[in-house]
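REQUEST ID: PR-0412
SUBMITTED BY: lab tech R.K.
PRIORITY: routine
TASK: structure prediction, single protein chain
INPUT:
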Amino acid sequence: MYTPEKPSHIIISEEKNSLLLSQQLMANGYPDKDKSQPVQIYRLSDFGLRKTQLGKLLDDLTPKVTLSKRKEDIDGFRANLRLLLYAFVATAYDFKWLAIPSGNGHYAKDQRLGSFGLSRRRVQTILEVLIQEDLIVLGRKGFLDHRPDVPSKASQYYPAPRLLEYFASCLYEFSGSLELPCYHYFNDFPSGKAPKASLWAGNEALLRRYNEFMAGHWWARKGPTTRSFSESLERGGRLHTAYQNIVNRRLPIRINTLLDGEPIAEPDFKSNHLRMAAKLVGEQLPEDPYTAIAESTDTTRDVVKQFVTMVLGCRSKRQKGGQMRNLASATDGLTLGIYRRVLAAFCQQYPWLDAKNIFYNDTGAKMQKLEGEIGLEMFKWAMNENIPILSVHDSFAVPAKYADVVWSKMTESWSEVTGR
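STATUS: complete
OUTPUT:
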C-alpha cells in the first residue's frame, strides 16, 4: 500500500496543533478514577522517533531499570520500557488512566500482556523508576477482591507533565499500517469460523479500497478502519479506527485535531440508535428526543443518553434487575431514581417502546449493523468525491469545508439504509 511523504506544510500545522492540544491535556489534571484502559501496543512513526529523540530517553532510563550487563536483559527491559512509554502517552490523548495489573497470571505467555513480551518483574521495576523520575503518577492502587462476582482492580497510572512535554509534538506520529490481511473481525461466532465469504466479500473489498484511499491522507492516530461482528452477522458491524478513541466528550481534543492539516467538523446523527429502531418498527421520533425527556425528568441530556445506551444494550429483560442493582449505590449522574424516572417518561411519551420490545432486546447490537452500513455508503460516496472521511460511530470527521455536503449525504444514506 503506497503512502506518500507527508507535505511540509502539513507537518508544521500538525506540530503546532499537537503542542496546543497537549498543553490543554496537561492543564486539565487527571481523568476520572473510573476511566481507564488496558495496555495496548502503539507505534511511533520514524519521523516521530527522530523528533522526540526517543533513543536518548531510553538510553537515560535503561540503566536505571536494570543493572544487568547481559545484552538479553538490557534488550528485554528496553523493549518493555519503550512499549510502556508509548502506551502512557497514547492513553493521555484518550484521557484515561492506564490500568496495569500486578498478578503473575496476567504475564503468562498465553495471556495478553505476556503475548506483548511484557514480564511482571520488568514492568514493576519500570513503573517504580518512572514514578521516581516524575514521568508517571500512581492513581488508584490495585487490589484483589475475593468476593464472588466482584472483579479485582488493577493499579492505575497516568503520565506526568514531564512525560507529556517530551512527546507533546507527537499526537500525529502515533500511527499504524493501513494494510491488513482482512478488515473484518468475527468474534464469538458459534463455529469459531468466519461466515461464508460470499456474505461479506463485497464489503471487505470496499474497506480495502477505502483504507488504500485514506493512506494518502493524514490525521491523528492514523490507522486502519475495520468492521467487527459478534456471534452473527446480525449483531455488531460497527466500523472501528483508533481515531475514535481520542478524548472528545470530557475534553474537546479530537474535534480540534486536523485532517490533512485542516480543521475538521464532525456532523453527527442525534439519538441515532433509538431513531433507527423507531424507523424499523414504523414509528417516528423527533430528531432529538433525549432533550425533552431530560427536561421532563429534571436531569441532563447526557444522563438520558447513558440510560438509552444501557437499555438498548440489554439482551433481555432478565438483565434489567442487574442494571438497577448496579445503580443502587450511585450518588450522581445516572442514579437508580433517575433511571426509574427516565424509563417511566419514555414509556409514557412513547408507549410503543415497550409494546414493540425496543428496550431490553439487544437492540443496540442490531443497530450497530445499520450504523456500519451507513458508514460504508458514506465511504463509497466520499471516495468518488475525493473527500477524506473518518467514521466516529454516529458522526463523520471531515475537513470543515465539506461539513454541509457531508451532512446532506449522511441524511440521504440514513434514509436509504433504514428503508431497505
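NOTES: The longest helix spans residues 71-94.
REVIEWED BY: pending
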